């Protein structure tokens, strides 16, 4: 999908930076200036810097329940275990107690991910050495089975908020790059699959507009069905990827961001847009349009594809039942300033206030 791998890998960092905004703080800016030959080195560098910062703050610890045979009482006595010791003539009390420990799931996921990176042949020695040094502080932390991690069950609170970004990157690495070998061992695949890249692409575009275009309301909003009788039983939820709104002018742009290996579908030698994508964005637009009833408004839709090396690249605008549906590509192989300009131009084309902002940026 890429013509210049080094530019694309560098842009993965920028996409991560917007998707997980705290990456843009402090020394992580150094990551963007480094040259990376492969994406594994990039992930290793980001994790190394993030874990290093976390070690300065201290590893997150939480109370874990322990049961142990002890010579003196600690916590509360477990009677069945103590009786068993008495029968065996052991002068020990079986005690249950809570212990503040760093051997919790958050640190276990960090260690598991780092060990996968360390074992990977394509990661340069300098990054492996940094990670190995940091793992000395994880000597009391266990590794976990990568495929057993229930990401949706992880809860963050005030004491472990700093782990949110690190674990998001761990999830991207483990879910998107993990393969099982014939002998049951785990290794990292050569690249993140399209599904995970699609999620990252969506989140990047959304967070870019949230940060760089505060004059608009950017969100991933649900769209209610325009029902004649109000009965919506069993109807699926319409969840947009990106919705840009200007309340002053009642102008809305709904963007569906897509990251595919092949942008077009081909049948009998004829290339067309993915029909399901087009049906979906049209449905979103028409149902959102119905919310405004008689008020002056503009609702448009856009399919935004990550550009591929295919000969045919979509760049079309269609007028459908009173609404504009456009199809456009975003070239991720350009310098990031050019990627940002492409996104800014999309906003400027659809919103007057964004047009004024973009014009001032170039004056």
UniProtKB/TrEMBL annotation:
The keyword Transport does not apply. The keyword Chloroplast does not apply. GO terms for molecular function: endonuclease activity; hydrolase activity. InterPro entries: McrC, McrC_bac. Its EC number is 3.1.21.-. It is an enzyme of class 3 (hydrolase). GO terms for biological process: DNA restriction-modification system. It holds the Pfam family McrBC. Transmembrane segments: none annotated. Keywords: Endonuclease, Hydrolase, Nuclease. This is 5-methylcytosine-specific restriction endonuclease system specificity protein McrC. It comes from Caproicibacterium argilliputei. The lineage of its organism: Bacteria, Bacillati, Bacillota, Clostridia, Eubacteriales. The gene is mcrC.
């Amino acid at each position: 999908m890429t013509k210049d791998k080094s530019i694309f890998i560098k842009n993965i960092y920028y996409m991560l930076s917007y998707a997980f905004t705290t990456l843009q703080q402090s020394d992580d800016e150094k990551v963007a200036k480094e040259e990376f030959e492969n994406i594994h080195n990039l992930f290793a560098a980001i994790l190394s810097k993030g874990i290093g910062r976390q070690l300065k703050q201290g590893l997150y610890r939480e109370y874990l329940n322990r049961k142990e045979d002890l010579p003196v009482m600690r916590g509360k006595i477990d009677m069945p275990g103590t009786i068993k010791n008495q029968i065996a003539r052991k002068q020990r009390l079986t005690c249950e107690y809570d212990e503040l420990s760093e051997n919790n799931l958050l640190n276990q996921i960090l260690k598991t991910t780092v060990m996968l990176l360390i074992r990977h042949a394509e990661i340069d020695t300098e990054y492996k050495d940094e990670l190995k040094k940091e793992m000395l502080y994880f000597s009391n932390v266990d590794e976990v089975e990568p495929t057993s991690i229930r990401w949706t069950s992880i809860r963050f609170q005030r004491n472990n908020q700093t782990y949110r970004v690190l674990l998001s990157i761990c999830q991207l690495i483990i879910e998107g790059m993990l393969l099982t070998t014939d002998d049951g061992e785990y290794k990292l695949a050569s690249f993140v699959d399209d599904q995970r890249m699609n999620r990252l692409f969506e989140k990047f575009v959304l967070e870019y507009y949230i940060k760089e275009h505060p004059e608009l309301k950017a969100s991933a909003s649900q769209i209610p069905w325009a029902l004649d009788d109000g009965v919506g039983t069993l109807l699926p939820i319409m969840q947009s990827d990106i919705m840009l709104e200007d309340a002053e002018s009642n102008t809305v742009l709904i963007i569906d961001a897509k990251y595919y290996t092949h942008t077009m579908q081909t049948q009998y030698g004829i290339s067309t847009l993915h029909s399901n994508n087009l049906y979906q964005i049209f449905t979103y637009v028409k149902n959102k349009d119905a919310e405004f009833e008689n008020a002056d408004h503009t609702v448009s839709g856009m399919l935004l594809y990550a550009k591929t090396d295919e000969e045919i690249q979509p760049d079309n605008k269609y007028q459908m039942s009173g609404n504009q549906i456009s199809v456009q590509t975003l070239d991720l192989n350009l310098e990031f300033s050019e990627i940002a300009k492409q996104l800014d131009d999309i906003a400027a084309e659809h919103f007057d206030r964004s047009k004024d902002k973009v014009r001032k940026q170039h004056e």
